[in-house]
Amino acid sequence: MNQEDHSPQDAYEADGSAEDDAQATRRDAGEAESSRASRGWWDRNADEYQNEHGAFLGDDRFVWGPEGLDEADAALLGPASSLKGKDVLEIGAGAAQCSRWLAARGARPVALDLSHRQLQHALRIGDDVPLVEADAGRLPFRDGSFDLACSAYGAVPFVADPVNVMREVRRVLRPGGRWVFSVTHPIRWAFPDEPGPEGLSVAASYFDRTPYVEQDEQGRAVYVEHHRTLGDRVRDVVAGGFRLLDLVEPEWPEWNSQEWGGWSPLRGNLIPGTAIFVCERD
């Protein structure tokens, strides 16, 4: 991934039209700037995102990434039968599709998102899930409020301080609570954001952690995404107070013929596009 080839579409939860006058670059972006950019970007692009991808996501389906790995099959939060009565926090919930799936299995989910417009889409679909507008780095819940926490491409790739998010999630989880989150697979940052053959050659250093930023004419960030290597992500999990139970790299299934930004059957059969971290709080 590099500034010439990458776009917001490289993020599963950040697909849509970028600002017309935005300039792509690689530069540092701190916590406040990243949060402000994410809130603004999602408020502006939520309509297009839901219109384009709503059918794939469904109204009450729990999908971990563009490959289409479904929680109903993966059971990364535990067997579906074990979810009944569990308090679950979904971070970066978008239109709360995953939370509705959880509620249908008897869980008590709360859907949290930074974007007011995304949560309006959640209300459009239904009012059966509690919604909270808040930053993942400052969770507005008491210690030990939840049994489980999850995030499908929400928040984690877009924050400057992922360890802080991990610690916040740990704080609101009860002992033994599971935290499962998916992000763009770190190896994707080395490749151009193209679904075809041109996206199969390394174009940038995998080890360059400089954030990808789109900024306006005044130099203000309108979109920010942060790169961490696979090792960085593991260290973030541990520093946040979790044990890593599993690292899932979904393979591209034969039934999935869609292209989503840089994701495609061609690339998905050769390199991983998603990394899912299954963690547990002591």
Topology:
Layout: E1 23-26, H1 31-57, H2 71-74, E2 87-91, H3 97-104, E3 108-113, H4 116-125, E4 131-133, E5 146-152, H5 162-172, E6 173-184, E7 212-215, E8 221-225, H6 230-239, E9 242-248, H7 265-268, E10 274-281
Helix pairs in contact: 1-4
Overview of the structural elements:
This protein is globular. The protein has helices at residues 31-57, 71-74, 97-104, 116-125, 162-172, 230-239, 265-268; strands spanning 23-26, 87-91, 108-113, 131-133, 146-152, 173-184, 212-215, 221-225, 242-248, 274-281. The chain contains seven helices and ten strands. β2, α3 (97-104) and β3 (108-113) form a beta-alpha-beta unit. Mean pLDDT is 93; it is low at 1-18. 26% of the residues lie in helices and 22% in strands. The chain is of the alpha/beta class and 282 residues long. The longest helix is centred in the first third of the chain and has 27 residues, at 31-57.
Write a brief structural summary.
The protein is of the alpha/beta class. Helices cover about 25% and strands about 20% of the residues.
Portion of residues within helices = 25-40%
- Shape, per Cα inertia axes: globular
N-to-C series of helices and strands? EHHEHEHEEHEEEHEHE
Low-confidence stretches: 1-18
Overall pLDDT metric: 93
> How much strand?
15-25%
Strand order of the largest sheet: 4-3-2-5-6-10-9
What is the radius of gyration computed over CA atoms, rounded to a whole number of angstroms?
17 Å
Number of helices: 7
Q: Termini separation (Å)?
A: 35 Å
Largest sheet: 7 strands, mixed
Structural class: alpha/beta
Would you report the number of β strands?
10
